[in-house]
């Protein structure tokens, strides 16, 4: 697939994704997760704090509420090394949401859940921004195509046609990357490891 899309390649991002919750899983109990993502694009590095909630995955199309804010990479690393520091980010709009919407109090603190790494290849293809992720979970590698769109069903049909025309086997996602990470098992493609 990457060979076919190579004329449309715009950038490569190296990502580290780390996840956090309270010791009693207050966020997970309400179908939410807090993530710190570190990006490396050439010599430029950045960090984003995300709160993802209310994920629904139907026939390979994911809909999730995602709220993000930039985080200084040095502060992000400090929080990754000591998740209790997340509670001290008093100016963070997302941590305020964790307190107000999810009942996460300062006494609860945060714990690290671990994470995984991605190499994300970004393509501008037929007016769409495609992101092809190679995700290394530590227990195996999996590939996924992502495309944010206001018309997910149309994009899904267009991608399916492209994959079929080019003889590329695929399978709809049955769970998010985070759920795959937490399960400790890779999804399978027609009985074979994908």
TrEMBL record:
GO molecular function: pyrophosphatase activity
Name of a matching Pfam family: CYTH
CDD domains from the UniProt entry: CYTH-like_Pase
Stored PROSITE patterns: CYTH (PS51707)
Gene3D superfamilies attached to this UniProt entry: Hypothetical Protein Pfu-838710-001 (2.40.320.10)
Domain annotation CYTH: ranges: 1-185
Protein name stated in the entry: Triphosphate tunnel metalloenzyme 3
């Amino acid at each position: 697939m990457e060979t076919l899309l190579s004329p449309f390649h715009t950038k490569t991002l190296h990502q580290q994704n780390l996840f956090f919750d309270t010791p009693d899983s207050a966020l997970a109990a309400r179908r939410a997760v807090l993530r710190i993502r570190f990006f490396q694009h050439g010599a430029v590095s950045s960090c984003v704090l995300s709160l993802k909630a209310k994920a629904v995955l139907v026939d390979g199309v994911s809909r999730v509420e995602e709220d993000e804010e930039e985080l200084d990479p040095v502060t992000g690393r400090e929080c990754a090394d000591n998740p209790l520091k997340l509670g001290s980010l008093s100016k963070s709009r997302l941590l305020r949401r964790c307190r107000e919407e999810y009942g996460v109090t300062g006494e609860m603190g945060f714990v690290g859940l671990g994470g995984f790494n991605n190499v994300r290849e970004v393509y501008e293809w037929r007016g769409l921004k495609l992101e092809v992720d190679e995700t290394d979970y530590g227990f195996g590698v999996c590939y996924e195509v992502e495309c944010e769109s206001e018309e997910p069903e149309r994009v899904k049909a267009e991608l399916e046609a492209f994959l079929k025309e080019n003889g590329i086997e695929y399978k709809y996602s049955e769970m998010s990357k985070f759920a795959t990470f937490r399960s400790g098992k890779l999804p399978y493609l027609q009985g074979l490891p994908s």
